[in-house]
Amino acid sequence: LEHARMELPDETRGDADEPAVEAASEPAAAEEHPTSTSRRSVMWLTYGIIPVLIVGLAACAGYLLWKDSSLRAAQAASVSAVPAATDSTIKMLSYKPDTVQKDLEAAREGLTGAFKDSYNALTHDVVIPGAQQKQISAVATVPAASVVSATAKRAVVMVFVNQTTIVGADPPTATASTVRVTMDKVGDRWLVSDFTPI
């Protein structure tokens, strides 16, 4: 009996060791799971977020380049459209009775589109005959002009005009006005496409 009693703790001890082995194997299995999760995270970053970020950065860079190019074109338009608008305004509103037809035909060279057609009709039907019959002369000056808006192909210029008109032997009369002049880029020239007194 004493021998049996001594053997009994060995069997009991063996049974108690088995859960310890199983418990020891569980952390090993648990260690594999974070590794696979990390790999999936890396794959997702590599094939998901990073390409999207690259495309987004490329799009932003392209937009910034386009914006910079547009701003440069608008600045260049502002520089060149203002003197063109000033010159055309002076030519359109200045003439002498003896040379009125030649003067206004030269002014039409700075116009374009439907406005050129309407200006041509007005000068031929009204201004030229009236200047010749009543001996009307006019001189226009532009003390100031500024850009309202500008793109590479179109600019709107505010032109401040002083015009002195003489009819026959009457004393000269002076008028001041403000005109909104729309300029279109046609080839390498800025031409008047609209002329609206304000």
What are the SSEs and their pairings?
Blueprint: H1 2-92, H2 100-108, H3 113-134, E1 136-150, E2 154-167, E3 173-186, E4 189-197
Antiparallel strand pairs: 1-2, 2-3, 3-4
Helix pairs in contact: 1-2, 2-3
Q: Write the CATH architecture name of the domain at 77-197.
A: Roll
Low-confidence stretches: 1-9, 11-30
Which CATH class of the domain at 77-197 applies here?
A: Alpha Beta
Total DSSP helices: 3
Quaternary organisation: single chain
CA radius of gyration is: 43 Å
Molecular structure report:
The chain crosses the membrane at residues 44-66. Residues 1-36 are annotated as: Disordered. By secondary structure, the protein is an alpha+beta fold. It has a domain at 77-197: VirB8 protein (Nuclear Transport Factor 2, Chain: A, Roll). 62% of the residues lie in helices and 26% in strands. It has helices at 2-92, 100-108, 113-134; strands spanning 136-150, 154-167, 173-186, 189-197. It has a four-stranded antiparallel β-sheet with strand order 1-2-3-4. A hairpin with a 5-residue loop joins β2 (154-167) and β3. The chain is rod-shaped, with a radius of gyration of 43 Å. The termini are far apart. The model is unreliable at 1-9 and 11-30 (pLDDT under 50).
How is this structure best summarized?
With 198 residues, the chain is of the alpha+beta class.
